[in-house]
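Listing S7. Sequence submitted for prediction.
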Amino acid sequence: MAGGVYVSSGGGGNYEGQVTAFVIIACMVAAMGGLIFGYDIGISGGVTSMSEFLIKFFPSVYRKEISDGASQNPYCKFDSQMLQLFTSSLYLAALVASFFASVITRMFGRKLSMFIGGAVFLVGAILNGAATNLAMLIIGRVLLGVGVGFANQSVPVYLSEMAPPKIRGALNIGFQMAITIGILVANLVNYGTSKMKGGNGWRISLGLAAVPAIMMSVGSLFLPDTPNSLIERGQTDKAKKMLQKIRGTDAVDQEFQDLIEASDAAKQVEHPWRNIMQPRYRPQLVITCCIPCFQQLTGINVIMFYAPVLFKTLGFGDDASLMSAVITGLVNVLATIVSVVCVDRFGRRALLLQGGAQMLICQIAVGIVLGLTFGTSGQGSLSKGVADFVLFLICAYVAAFAWSWGPLGWLIPSEISPLEIRSAGQAINVSVNMLFTFVIAQAFLSMLCHMKFGLFFFFAAFVLIMTIFVYSLLPETRRVPIEEMNGVWKSHWFWGKYIPFDAPAVSVACSLAEACLINLLESLAGPIGTDSDG
């Protein structure tokens, strides 16, 4: 067969098909939804380090920045609740929007949510670029947040449903890849606009967010609906044709039947929000809450939001701080490629455990260097060699995050929930992620002022906790079809007790072995199950 066979690891059946160009292109277009999220993450930290922007909207912060160090601890020169609100308001809006997006995604499909997200983000980008006062700036940020909430709700689910199991991880990480590209582009834009004369470079930086918004909105119009979504909305004939198209074969009866059965089970559930609280869904609920929480408590957005501000605080000059942010953005993109290559080869757990260990070492090392150099007074300076070492440690930290908790923080929650609670589960994932993103963005500059170099030890402690959590409580989901996840939980040492006795409990390894054996016997003796003597 042209594309080979990929195996359902739940019941031992074979899902025939190939990895088609159609599904690859569809997933690449959908993953562009990550561009709007990434561009905003990268752009906000850059503009908040631009003097012209601070003078117009946050003059008190600018006065503290240019004051002499005798009266102001360098750790505290950017400490401003309003400046933090500029960054964090987006994520509070995204949190609320994700719940509305959950309903729209379930009732009208994933495409519409993507289009709404892009269109609202576009309006927010225009308002930000044209802002004349702080109120206009914050309203624009809120609209950007609504767009991010809709995109983050729909895109990961779309990717998980379109992709064949054996490359689901790689295709889903396309969303994270788009985020990292957005961050890198934003850092490059900030570096360029910071050198513009006239003091309006920040307007260009904020206004260019319209570009990824247009790409997402227009791209969503050409995307096909997922078979899961079509079945969920009663369009079974169209769903089967779509499944045949994305799998590149007409022999999709087994997979189609599994999708129908999953949809029928989902329709029995009238209240997904109430049902996800039931004990049988306890593994999905806990993982869906903990993974996005831990993702933010790695401290990554401290680097991504405030990289230029952080580097300026550490004594890098204006150009050097923006260029350092560009370097970390480039590392972010390249390391995400490592995850694309490795996630379906070595599994989710291996990447999370290795990434956690590397982040832990880097954060502790940065905290020690800054503590020895600046102490609690903030007085001191980094020599070129020490500054380069700090930049290396931060890049190593970013790389570890980019091939582990970055992409897998979106992939794992999107692939573990059955259809009947999938929209609710993804809404929880997005809302928890946005809640902790908001908290970190709103609190970081104040935390830096009060905790100083100890802030890095604070996040290192959480990295240790989350690495222990993964080792103990997160099962491997590599190459397991999302309709067949129940067996993974049933066979787990801890989560198995929450799964009903009549739920499938076939282990992934046994299912794969059984499927391979059936393939072998079919090739030798013809199809198994042929009636000969009744």
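Caption to Listing S7: primary sequence and predicted structure tokens for the chain studied. The beta strands are 5-7, 14-16. The first strand starts at residue 5 and ends at 7.
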